[in-house]
């Protein structure tokens, strides 16, 4: 474009945002008002289901909790003190567990295959927990990382490569802002966080390091140590992450960026561990929960009853997704790098269920009702592309008749299908609202799946 007024005309076209013209990338300011306005990348809401992996030096004692060091040394809880006195020599320190974190059976390809079989669409690995040990060779964690000590391997890089080569999962990293016993953090805490030696020399450099090195599409922050986000310079880091990082277009973040930020700021809300509000929220949220009721890390002292049965996991998935959330289901590998058989079984069971009912989970949106008002244990989702309402029910009625109180059926138009079963089902409307559906008479072997089933309803209001 040339001639008088050409610059003004181009400016007008840019202002109008005409097709084919380059659009300016939004620049986010290091303020919560600006950062919270960033649209959440669509892939995260569509994914619905991810796997959390808590792995670290705490996997060596594998007793009680991944908070082993804190409970043993700081709170001096009796079971932990007795465990150490009975099994380790006097003077044995937590740091002595580092060389015992060996990972000799860690096969990242096998892990990736299990993750793929679970039906998950993303995975979040603990790159560093509150103990400060990094699963990569961080130059900011000298001699307290998986390359210098223990496995002598970059565990983050190996899993990232296998996940990306063998699956379609999005790869994410958990990172703890604080470290329980780091002298620099303890000094800052003593100074009421008016000094910032720890975040500037340790925590923030680590965050920049893992983003540039591994390009995770999820940064799952945790552990603020009761320090405010201004101490952590969280808004400064997030502004860089959203504006200039190599994952600026696809990365998602949670809400744990300093005292007071949880359930208030960030890309999606977690609000608390095992958060399951049972209702629709105005902002995207995630239910991070554990298969082992008592711990995020692996526990040798866990009993079979401590592991949630598959029926409970299917219920949590259906309930969470119906209310607009994602489910992040945690497993804890062993110190030698194995995913215990009970965790693998649960993940493969969820994957088997999703193989039949995935259309009621992936890419869905909340419907006008989240659960049924007549029959307990029925959760609704909506598939926009096909205009289908999905009714996920967890109990197969002995009568073979299922009553739904919410859908408004249209005689001659509404169709009802059982996911995994070919024939359409018969139904009767109950006045202006509600319907009764005749389920097929099937033997257990003929059932399309176990633990929960989906009715696909078309042309209902």
Indicate the topology.
Blueprint: H1 6-16, H2 32-35, H3 42-47, E1 49-53, H4 68-74, H5 78-87, H6 108-117, E2 122-128, H7 155-166, E3 170-176, H8 183-190, H9 197-214, E4 218-222, H10 229-232, H11 234-243, E5 252-253, E6 285-290, H12 310-322, E7 325-331, H13 341-357, E8 378-383, E9 388-393, E10 401-404, E11 415-418, E12 426-429, E13 435-438, E14 453-458
Parallel strand pairs: 1-2, 1-7, 2-3, 3-4, 4-5, 6-7
Antiparallel strand pairs: 8-9, 9-14, 10-13, 11-14, 12-13
In the CATH hierarchy, the architecture of the largest domain is: Alpha-Beta Barrel
The end-to-end distance, rounded to whole angstroms, is: 52 Å
Helical content class:
25-40%
Number of strands: 14
What is the average per-residue confidence, as pLDDT, rounded to a whole number? 95
- The rounded Rg comes to 25 Å
By DSSP (H or I, 4+ residues per run), the number of helices equals: 13
The best one-word shape is globular
Q: From N to C, what is the helix and strand string?
A: HHHEHHHEHEHHEHHEEHEHEEEEEEE
The major pleated sheet works out as: 7 strands, parallel
Count of spatially separate domains: 2
Uncertain regions spanning at least 5 consecutive residues: 1-5, 10-16
Lateral strand order in the biggest sheet: 5-4-3-2-1-7-6
Overall CATH class of the largest domain: Alpha Beta
Query: What is the CATH topology assignment of the largest domain?
Result: TIM Barrel
Class from helix and strand fractions: alpha/beta
Give structural notes:
With 461 residues, this protein is an alpha/beta fold. The protein has helices spanning 6-16, 32-35, 42-47, 68-74, 78-87, 108-117, 155-166, 183-190, 197-214, 229-232, 234-243, 310-322, 341-357, and strands at 49-53, 122-128, 170-176, 218-222, 252-253, 285-290, 325-331, 378-383, 388-393, 401-404, 415-418, 426-429, 435-438, 453-458. The protein folds into 2 domains: 32-360, Glycosidases (TIM Barrel), CATH 3.20.20.80; 378-458, Sandwich (Immunoglobulin-like), CATH 2.60.40. The chain contains 13 helices and 14 strands. It has a 7-stranded parallel beta sheet. Helix 12 (310-322) links the parallel strand 6 (285-290) and strand 7. Helix 4 crosses helix 5 (78-87). The N and C termini lie far apart (52 Å). InterPro entries: FUC_metazoa-typ, Fucosidase_C, GH, Glyco_hydro_29, Glyco_hydro_29_CS, Glyco_hydro_29_N, Glyco_hydro_b. Homotetramer. Residues 23-359 form the Glycoside hydrolase family 29 N-terminal domain.
